[in-house]
Amino acid sequence: MGRARPGERGPPSPGPAAPPAPPTHRARALALLGALLAAAAAAAAARAYARHTEAQAAARQESALKALGTEGLFLFSSLDTDRDMYISPEEFRPISEKLTGSTPTASYEEEELPPDPSEETLTIEARFQPLLPESMTKSKDGFLGVSRLALSGLRNWMTAASPSATFAARHFRPFLPPRGQVELGEPWWIIPSELSVFTGYLSNNRFYPPPPKGKEVIIHQLLSMFHPRPFVKTRFAPQGAVACLTAISDFYYTVMFRIHAEFQLSEPPDFPFWFSPGQFTGHIILSKDATHVRDFRLFVPNHRSLNVDMEWLYGASESSNMEVDIGYIPQMELEATGPSIPSVILDEDGNMIDSRLPSGEPLQFVFEEIKWQQELSWEEAARRLEVAMYPFKKVTYLPFTEAFDQAKAKNKLVHSILLWGALDDQSC
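RESULT FIELD:
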């Protein structure tokens, strides 16, 4: 290229590079289409995998049905708690313990703690009167195909499994309020409910409760005094245990609680039979550090004419072979025989003292009188726990005759509800 002549302009010098042109609408549309196609392919692959998994499960179930038969598959399913069509060693444990006659070996957190010779213990007694057969309205012998075999677990349950048991005071620590929650009548959950009216319910086809964990342990141990197969969490909502403070002093709390739990009265080869009390309620008076328990009582309320729900299977199908009835149990109660006392008595020098006098009589402990600074009535505490379990109880429900007086005074209509059982406990 030659030089420019005088008076002529040379070629322009190269300037900075121009920015890239923005993507066109077409390019953006192609990118979006590609992303949608990729998402659709991933969703299709996920659906295909799910169908493949379901087909495998169906094939395993069909194979098991051919090998075991309907009743055998029913028993297998009751042990297969995770529904993976395999019985793991943990799932087989209840059958193994039953065949060998061994007792369950628990690895609960509380039991792993080494015993403290100076800690206090208390004795709890169980009082049990069996369900009154005449209170069952539907399940008379021969009625609706009900047989004595179907009710055998109920008929054979005549006494408490453990009339008496001893516990360390520290085992009741789960009844203490959460840190920072010292408001009278403010409910908290000892065992939260994992179900609601929207999440359905747990399978009826089970015989053995899952191992309790954490705060479930003490409640499981207490309920085991009645029957060896308590389920700390019921099949239906609301589950769990709720509590609130009813009295506070410098060193003690009074805690009221409400527990929804149930029992499985049958074992293989019989079909499951569920026994669901309307509720367990009660109170505990314990020191704020749970080293001393002054009083404890747990019971099924018996002021209503029906207080237990019973459901049982009479065939391998959960949906079509279920029978249900309601009945009345006069007494189902646990109570401490007295305050907790030291297991070992030491003098000022740390030497052990004989717990009996020279006459042979046991030493008598004198307990200080508790001076309560704040108190809440039993009725109000029970109402608040009831609302925690059943939020619809925020609305005031009245007896039949009182409702009309209120309706007339307020010029409102009456909404009447007629039930076989009680709407605000587990017996309905």
